Please model this.
Amino acid sequence: MSRFLGLLGVTTLLSSLAVFTHAAGASAADCGYLFDDFSYSSAGDSSLTANGWTPRSYAGGPGVPGATWSPSSITFPTEGGQKVMQLTASTDGTGAGTNHAELYSTQKRYLEGTYASRVRFTDTPTAGNDGDHINQTFFTISPLNGDMDPTYSELDISEYLPNGGWGETGPINYQTSWYTYRAEPWFADNMHTEQRSSLNGWHDLVATVADGHIRYYIDGVLVGDHSGKYYPRQTMTINWNLWFIDTAAHTGGRSTYIQQVDWVLFAKNQALTPAEVTARTAGYRSAGATFADTVDTTGGCTPPTTPPTTPPTSPPTTPPSQGDCTSAPDWAFGTAYQGGQTVKHEKSRNGDPGGPPSGEGKHLWKARYWTQGSEPGWTQQWQDLGRC
Model:
């Protein structure tokens, strides 16, 4: 089967998954999905880029200064009868002799919903001495538009350090939700949770972004619940990378480490349970699909509703078609708002308040609960009361 399913193929596939969507209830409405099990031949496979992935080739951070980021560090071997995406990183203890690896989504289009990936972490190198401060990751991220950018959004769904780093001994695994940071001098504004045990082997990593909370799961177990200003405020890319924090713990010649990824799933505007994630990925595979993407073609989400058992005695109230913006202030991303407060604002086109407007005009918005830095129209913190 082709790695890329056309619209008709996706529709057929989703119909074949009815048994899973029915079990998931309202959360399984087809608001848009991305699924990929990485059945590619190499980093140069044209289907890889056609399906929206970019192997990193540009220099820079994070990690060891002077390190190389090469597409050749991304390969697609077969493990257990399934193709997997493999990241390989190696170091000889010098910047020039260090190689990092990263694969990321070409488009910045992911915000609220469910992010999931089956990832194999490794505690020891495939060659050379052990002990390096290696970081094995799955994360989402937006650009930082200047120091302390209040719209910056990053969710480190897992950063696994089998040998420690950043002053910690390993193994340790982090989930980190970012508000913003400054590179020089370093200042970080984030919230994190951690697990201090080995994660060697395969694990299902899930993060849901909904209702003002980021909830992180490992193998079905809730390990973190972050909220408040750390809730993402703009669309992000999906990424995996494998890199050395530093070379302080390196010994001997060259050491080589790997990280593998079996599949990735994104469910737009839906908070799936880990069990629902497992069911949906199994459904794609049983249908013979290696890739499906309806994130943009569906355009939104209308969860199914259960009709009332007794007809209403009066017609239901319809949402206002126009909001009274006379007394509402303009929304400001640096201002904290309490539940019930109203603002007027024209949402941005791409989820970046500093970017171009949507062209939809200003709307009146009401905060559902405390919020700061979350743009109306892009996050669930705000209820649309109609155009001004």
In short: The mean pLDDT is 87. Residues 336-387 form one domain.
